[in-house]
Amino acid sequence: MESNEQYLIGKVQRALATDPRVHKQDVTVTVCGSRIHISGQTSTNDRRRAIELVVSETVPEMEVRNELTVIEIAGPAQPEMIRD
Amino acid sequence: MIRVAAIGDVHFSEDSRGRFTDYWSQLHKAADVFLIAGDLTTHGTTDQIDALLEEVRGVRVPIVAVLGNHDYHENKERELRLRLERNRVIVLEGESTVLTMGSYRLGIAGTKGFGGGFPGACASEFGEPEMKAFIRHTECLAERLASELKKLKCDYRIALLHYSPVSDTLQGERLEIYPFLGSYLLAEAVDSAGADLVVHGHAHLGKEKGLTAGGVPVRNVALPVLKHAYAVYHLGVREAEISDFKSEI
Question: How many other C-beta atoms are found inside a 10 Å radius of the C-beta of residue B19?
Fold first, then answer.
C-alpha cells in the first residue's frame, strides 16, 4: 500500500471515530485509485447514510462506494445450556 | 435452573427507537434476568439513553447493565446511570448484586473493564505516566471485579463486562487492536474468584464463545456478533443438587 493511501485511510477512520454524527470505529476502509470503499455493519439505514456523508466530506476528491450492510435483528437466539 | 438473556453494543440513538420493542417485551417468556454488556448508546448522550429506556420499559424481568466506552464519550456517565436506575435498571461498576429467582440466588459482579492486551502481547505499568495510568486503570477494575465476585453468596455467579477478558472471543478482529479490546487481567480476576459465566461485548467482529484459562465460559454478546435480539444462557442444576435429589429417591 502506498503511503498516501495509508494516510488517507487513517484520516477517514479518525473522522468516523470522532464525528458526532456517527462515532463509528469498526468501518473497514480501502482505497482503490480514486475510489474509497467503506464496508462493515451498521445498525440503521440512517447511520449507513450518515457514515457515507462523513466520508464524502472528509475526502471530497474521492468517489465513495458504500458497501456497509444494516444488521438485521432476528428474534432471541436458541438457548445454550452453560452448565447442567 | 436460571435463564439469562444478554445483549451488548446496541448503540442506541434517536433512530433506534422501536428496533427491539417486539422482542424485548416478550423476553420474560425466555429468561429470568436481562444483562446488557455496555455500549448502550452511540456516544453517551441523555437523549440516546432515553431512547433505550423507552425500549426497556417493556421488559418484565430484572435488568442489570454495565456501561461501555461509548457511554463515557460525553462525560455524562453519572447522568446516564441515574436515568437507568430511575427506570429499574441495576448499573454495576466495580459492584455486585444478588437476585433471588425462585429457590436460586444469582450473583452478578460488573465492571466496564478496560484494555491492555493478552499474555505475550500486553501492556504493563512501565514508562510514561500515561502508559502507567492506562494499565493501572485496568488493574484497578480487575482487582475490584475479583473482590466483588469473591464476596457474592449465591448459587450462581456471573461476571458482566464490556471489554473482553480473553482473546478467544476476539477472533475476527485485527490482531493489532486486541490491546484495545480487552485484558487478560479480567480473566485472571474471574479465575481467582470463580464464576459460572462471563458475559462481555465491545468486539463487534469477534465471535461468541470462549473460555478463560481456568475454564469459565465466556460469551461475547455484542449485537453485531449475535445478530439476535438477545442470547439466552441456561445455568443448570448443580451436581451437588443432583446428588441431593438422588439421595432423596
Answer: 19
The answer to whether A1 faces chain B, any CB pair under 8 Å, is no
Do A23 and B73 lie within an 8 Å CB cutoff? yes
Interface of A with B in 28-47 (CB under 8 A): 41, 43-44, 46-47
Digitized pLDDT (tens) for each residue of chain A, 84 residues in all: 666 889 999 999 999 999 999 999 999 999 999 999 999 999 899 999 999 999 999 999 999 999 999 999 999 999 999 976
Residue-wise DSSP of A29-79: EEEETTEEEEEEEES-HHHHHHHHHHHHHHSTTSEEEEEEEEPPPBSPPPP
Tell me the ipTM for this assembly. 0.89
Angle between helices B184-193 and B129-151 in degrees, nearest 10: 20
Question: Cell digits for B2?
Answer: 436460571
Please tell me if residue A23 touches chain B, with a CB cutoff of 8 Å: yes
Q: For residue B226, what is the nearest residue in chain A, using CA coordinates?
A: A77
- Cell output for A19: 464525528
pTM: 0.93
Pick the residue from chain B with its C-alpha nearest to A50: B15
Q: How many CA atoms lie within 13 A of B3 on its CB side?
A: 14
Residues 6+ apart with CB under 8 A from B188: B142
Q: Which three cell numbers stand for residue B187?
A: 480473566
Nearest CA in chain B to A42: B224
